[in-house]
Every structure is written in C-alpha cells, then in structure tokens.
Amino acid sequence: MRTDDSNPIRPIGRYTRVTLAVAGILAAAAAYSEDKDGSEASQPTAELEEVTVTATGRAQSAVDVPYNLSVVTAKDLTDAGVSDLAGLARQVPGLTYLDLGPRSNGVNNGLIIRGLNGASAGINDNSPPAAESTVSTYINQTPLFSNLKITDVARVEVLRGPQGTLYGAGSVGGTIRYIFNQPDPGKFSGDLDTKISKTEGSGEPNYDVDAVLNMPITDRAAIRLSAGYENRAGVIDANSLAVYDSAGNPVLADPTDFFGSKGVFAKRADTDNSNTKYARLSGLWNVTDTLTALVTVQSQLDNAGDFSGVSIHSDELANTRYRTSPMHTQSDLYSLELTQDFGFATLTSATSYTRQILASQSDYTNYGLRFQGFYAGFPRITDYTNINYHTKQRTQEFRLVSKPGTHWDWVAGAYYTKRDQTGTIRSGIPGFAQYANAPGYPDAVAAIGPGASYADLARLTYPDATFNDDTTFQLDKRVVNPQKALYGELTRHITSRWQLTGGARFFWVKNDRSSSQVVPSEGSDGNFLAVTDSATHDHIFKVNSSYEFMPDNQVYATYAEGFRQGGANALPLVGFYASDPSLVPYKPDYSKNYEFGVKGILSHRIQYSAAAFYIHWEDLQIQIPAPISGIPTIVNGGTAVSKGIELSANAALTSQLSATLGYTLTDAHLTESFTVRAGYNGNDGDRLPGVPRQSILAALDYNQPLSWGSTPSSVDFRVDGNYRSDTNTSLNKTSANFIHLGGFAMFGASATWRREAVRVRLFVDNLTNNRGVTAADIQNDTAALTRPGSIYFIQRPRTAGIDVGYSF
C-alpha cells in the first residue's frame, strides 16, 4: 500500500494551497476587471445570471449549495448544440464519459465522476451491466439511466462525490439530474427546430426535427408535448461481412471442399447508422394554491445498425468484423409527482414506473474462433449472439422538506423501489448444424466408419446431444431487486454565515437471482439451473459544514459516504460448468469522500469553484465472466483511492464576451492487489480503467448586436474545446481487454444569428477531426490484437451543418 494514501488528510492539505491560490487569482481578476483604472465606469456592465437548483431537496441558488456541483442550463445546451450524453460530458468539468456510440450508449452507463470506475472500458458494450453504475441518473424525480435525447430541458445538475444519503445506491461517485421544463398555464408557446449536417466519411446527411408545444387548459392547468426524430448517418464501413445463402448458411469460397473451405466475404458502407424517436407528454394541475400534480409520460426508441468501432489494425473508418451488430432499445417512463405545501414544510410524493426493452445481435466471431476446436474445427465460423433484456422498475418516494429557517433546516424521506429484469442470451454459428450433420466428417469416419458425421462422433461423449439448429448455447437470467430506505439531513445554522449539516440513510436490500443454461451439443451435460437470494441491511452517513466568508462566497468541508448493494450471483456449483463457490456472494462496495472547497461569485461577474477531494473505495465491484459458463458475475476487487482537484470558473468578461474554464486532476488507483480468475486481476498501484489523470474544458462566447433594419438582431459566436489525457481500458497488461489509449482533444465552433423568434446556427463539431478513442473491445482475442472483431470505439468525425429554429 502506498504510504501517501494512508492518511486521507495529507493529500487534501497539499491540494488546499492550490485551491486558495486559485481563489486569490480569481479575486484579483475580478478586482482588476471591475476597476483597472480606479473607476468601475471604465468597464462595460456585465453580470452572470443566477441559477436555481434543487439538488438538496429545496430550491436554492447553485452558488449557495455547500459542495461542488455543475449546472448546465437550457441556454448552455442550446449554445453548445448538446442533444445527448456524449455532448453533455464535453460541457461539464471532470465528467468522463466512455462514449461507445449510439449502438451501446443506451445500454451502458459509461459515466465516471471523480475517478470511480472498476469496469473495463468497452467490455460491457452489449448488455446492461450486472452491477450498478457508480454514477446514478435521475429524470426529474425518477431514477433511470437512458441515453436521453436532451431537448426541452430546463437544466442538468451534476453532483460530484458520493450522494448516498439523498440519492441512494449507485451514487458512489456522483449523481446526474435531468430537470425538464414543466407545463406553464400562463401562456401558449412552442418551439420548432430542424437541423441538417454532414459527417466526414459518410455518404448520407444527418438530420433532426424537434418540436415543443405548451398549451394552457385553464389558468391552473396546462399540458406540454415535446417530440422529435433524429437520424445519424453511418460513417464506419464493414470490409469483411460474411455472405450467406438463402438458408442462412455461409457461402463456400471453394464449393468442392465442404469440410475445409473458408467463407465468402463482402463490403458494406456506413453500417453504423442510427435513429431516435422520442415523445414526452406532461400535464400540470395546480389543484389548489398549495397542492400541485405533475404527470409525465415519455417514450424513446433507438435503433442502431452497428458499433461505432474501427479495426485496431488500420487507420480507416472501417472494421473487419464478420457480422454487423444491430440494436433496438425502448425506454418508457410514467410518473406522478404530487407536491403539498403545509406551510412549515413541503411534502413531495414521487411515483414512477419505468420499462426498458433491449433487443440486439452482436458479432461474437472472436469468441467462436477462440474455441474453434470445440466446434469441430468448423472453418467458416461467424459467431453471433442475440441479446434480449426486459427491465421493469416501480419506485415510490416520499420527501418532506422544511421551509428555510433561521436556526434549523431539515429533509426527511422514505424510499421504495423494485426492479425486475429478465434476460435471454442466445448464441449461434450459422451453418454449424449443416456442417455437424453432414456425412463424411473425416474424424468421424476414422472413428466410426463411412458416412459418419461430426454429430455421430459427438454423441459418443454426449449421448443426448442435438444439432437441430445453429444454436450453440442459451442463457436465461432473472433479477428481482427490491430496496427500501429511510433517509434525512438536518442543518443547524450556527450563525447567519456558518452552518453544519448531518445526514444518514438506512437501507434494506434484497437480491434474488436465477440463471439457466442450455448447450444442445452437450445434451443434458450442458444444462444447469442456479438460484440464489441475499439480503443486506446497512447505513451510511454524511457531515458537511460551510462558512460564508463574504457575501455569495463560502468555504466548505464534507465527509460523505456512498454505496452499491451487495448480493449473490446465480452460478452453477455442480457439473461441467461448475463455478468456485467463493464467486457466488459479493459484498456491497462503499466510497468515503473527504472534500474541502471554496466557491462563490466575485463582483457578479465571475463564478468559481475549487475543490480538493480524497475518496477511499472499499470492496469495489467489478464484472467478470464466470469461468467456463461465461455468466456475467459481480466480484469484489479490494480497495482503491481517488484523489484530486477540481477547478472551474464562468466569467462575464464584458457585456458581450463570456468565458468558461474547467480543469480536473485525478489520481485513481488500486491500493490492494487481487485475483478473481485468470485475466481478471489487479495490482497495487494500477490505475482505474477509463479514468484520465487530467481533463480540461474551455469555451468563449461573444455576442455581436446587429443594426440591420428596424428589428434588433444579434450573432453569437462560440468556440469550445475539451481535452482528456491518456487512459487504460483495464487495470494492467495481464488483465482482460487491456489497451493503453492516448489522450485527445475535441474542438467545436458555431455562429448563431437571432432575430426575435427566429434563430439560425451554423456549426462544426470535432473541428480537427480527431479520432478520439475512448474504449476498446479485444477481450476474446486468442492472442492480443489479432482477431477480426477487435475494435476501437471512436468519436464521431468532423460534422458541419445548419440548425434553424423558431419559437413562439
């Protein structure tokens, strides 16, 4: 164990000097910009707008929240052209996103905050991960991860560090909250936006259409509808797609050699095209002056033709996989939020039901080639896996929040949720049944006699083996996961400037899992059924104190805990696929965050935040495939620490020019070695996967008023960029799916003309056309980087277009 990690106070003390220095620089900058000549009048008037958030359960200014958070407003999203999670991550300091493209972004929560990530970058690109994410996501009051189309959003709140007391399991690293615009009974309004663009390497254009309509019903009620369609043209070519006959069997390159011939391959352009359809309908009713009801129904359908992945063996926008990997996902949400003002406190009831459906097929040829001998040496292996998941979740939360008081504030709540997920994973090798049943298989003839087939030979070992179709195995899974919790936070205002907050969450978790497998080529020897159940009861705490050393400026310190639930894996313990019993149970993992920071607003023109943090992560959960069976399995991987600094500033430099700057330094690594199985091990000092040591973002916005004609208009010019340093996809060179990825920068530029209700935006994304590799999938290589399916996940190439909108 590293000696500098043994005391959590030591690294924080070292970073404190940086924090105070940044605060001093910002204060000096504000003083200089306010009166560089000794007169405030020498500078144009410029002020930052106040942003209200509800991260603590009550509405308050973002600058008053006594910990580090970022808020991306609707204007920020529009100015930057953000419409998805990948774009959002480029606008938030310290938010890392493992962008796998439209094919997998809706499946895998690739969010990382403060370096807490144990999953290999790219290894969970097909199925929902077995373990919870380290970053929880909320849509209004509903816990749900989905790669939402970010439109008609009032703001996005990004809360850094463990948020377990208020936001529960899965918040070990942080929480992201999407707050959508509510219906407005006060006016009839709407917005229509259309966008068309072209991406380098694609033969087709991209286009979007988004519409919002707000309709009052009475002076107390209104409905709001937002809907749209997005089409993303493909940019990745498939250079080695297998060709099949009308029966679905591979075409032989040499028709005269049935048992030895390779297959035939062809090319197809732009296979990774995708589209999204979404609709959101909400209704608001102010039942009385104190009771409000908000109903929301939303649905999003995503379709993608293939991974946004390129071959690791060339610089082309192409891969050499033998099959494409299409995916369809559907995410539905139904919620009812009731708010009752009792005068002394406000009670909120949040009821929701969510449903997510995933249906996909993935190229698994690398896996098939890895076990080619098991499949009779079949020379035309093109392995695929059909993956289907259906997840339902019901959630009920009651939260009582006191009105702001002189001496005391408090929040108390009760939470219940139940997740029910079923999954089916079925693999097949096209043509294998035809091959296995064909008479004359050489080894069978030698062992049995003329006309014998491989199927005849296999039945000598597995008498009830069948080869009726191309199915090689099928795995069925189910998880039923109810959770209950009681939580609260209590704040004492010791003086008008000094407050102390304590919080706690007590939770009860059950986890019932089952899995069953069928392997036709092994008969009954390939079948198993495993059922497990587990229960956890525990608690976590939070302590926070802040002091306002001058108006709108505070220094704070926080200790906060986060957790992910434990459980038991449903693994077979007898037979050929038997697992080590020690892999069945897995413990909860806990994060303990120590944080010191300073934040505020200087001269109404510079909003800044500087924080130093140290996180101890105990029993971190990672996902591995179980030996032999390959069942997704959660295991504990020892301990890790993450420590660093977070700096950000927004400045209204003049009445026309504003700037944003963010810098994050993160040192996240293991502090304990472990081995759970071959290829899945960690060493003391290994960097946590997917975590850049440094990340930087910057943006400049300039507004130029125009005097054309009698109607005022203006042009907003924007340039932005972000950089993330190098990362490792896995813990070390001996662990599965390891590649070291270099750092990269992304830049964008736009010009937006506005005249009353009309806006026209010209933009270029990925200005320098940087490939920007974020993850890789090489886990089934028989030797490192040799198989046709090994791919890098890249950023979308340079895209230029026009966006036209009209508001009314």
Topology:
Elements: H1 9-34, E1 52-53, E2 60-61, E3 69-73, H2 74-80, H3 85-89, E4 95-97, H4 102-105, E5 111-113, E6 135-139, E7 142-143, E8 153-160, H5 164-167, E9 174-180, E10 189-199, E11 205-218, E12 221-232, E13 237-242, E14 265-268, E15 274-286, E16 291-304, E17 309-311, E18 318-319, E19 327-341, E20 345-363, H6 365-370, E21 384-402, E22 408-428, H7 432-437, H8 442-447, H9 454-458, E23 471-493, E24 498-518, E25 528-550, E26 553-564, E27 567-568, E28 585-586, E29 589-602, E30 606-618, E31 621-625, E32 632-636, E33 639-652, E34 657-670, E35 674-677, E36 680-682, E37 694-706, E38 713-724, E39 727-728, E40 740-741, E41 744-755, E42 758-765, E43 775-777, E44 791-793, E45 799-807
Parallel strand pairs: 6-9, 13-18
Antiparallel strand pairs: 1-2, 3-8, 4-5, 6-7, 8-9, 10-11, 10-45, 11-12, 12-15, 13-14, 15-16, 16-19, 17-44, 19-20, 20-21, 21-22, 22-23, 23-24, 24-25, 25-26, 26-29, 27-28, 29-30, 30-33, 31-32, 33-34, 34-37, 35-36, 37-38, 38-41, 39-40, 41-42, 42-45, 43-44
